[in-house]
Amino acid sequence: MPGTPNTILLEPANGFQLVRERLSGGAIIPGHLVAKNAADAFIVHPGAGLNAQKLFALPNVSNGGGIDQAYASGETVSALYAQPGDLIYGWVAASAAACIINSPLESAGDGTVRIATADAATDTAQRDAIVGYCAVAVDNSGNAAGPVRIQIEVA
Fold it and tell me: Quick one: pLDDT band at residue 14, thresholds 50, 70, 90?
C-alpha cells in the first residue's frame, strides 16, 4: 500500500460494516482500540492484555476530521466493530517491542496495541485478548516519545 493511508479501515474483509456511535468519555484518536465504560461512553481500551472487542475509533466525518484529529471528551465518536480479516490502521504503543508480520497483538491499555504477552488467553480475563495480527512490520521499540501507526489484520 503506497503512501500514508488516510482512513482507518484499509481493507474490509467483506461488505458488512457495523458502526456504532457513543459519547466520548475522554480523548480518542481515530484508530484507537476503544471500549464502552459504565456510562456507555467510548473510552480508549483501558486494560493492557485484557479481553477486548475489536472496536476501533473512526475519523470524525461530521466535522471533517482526519485520521489524526482527536475526539474531545463529550463528542460523539463513531467506532467500527471490525470483522475477522479486516485491515485496520491503528496504533502501536510507544516503546513497544518490534512487531514482525503475523505477531499477535493485544491492547496496551491506552488505545494502542502491543505484541501479546506469553500469558494471554490463559484465564477468563484474557481469553479474548488477541485483537489482531501485525500485517506490516513496525519497530517502535526505540521511540519512547509516542505511539505510531500500524496495520492490524483483525483476528
Answer: confident
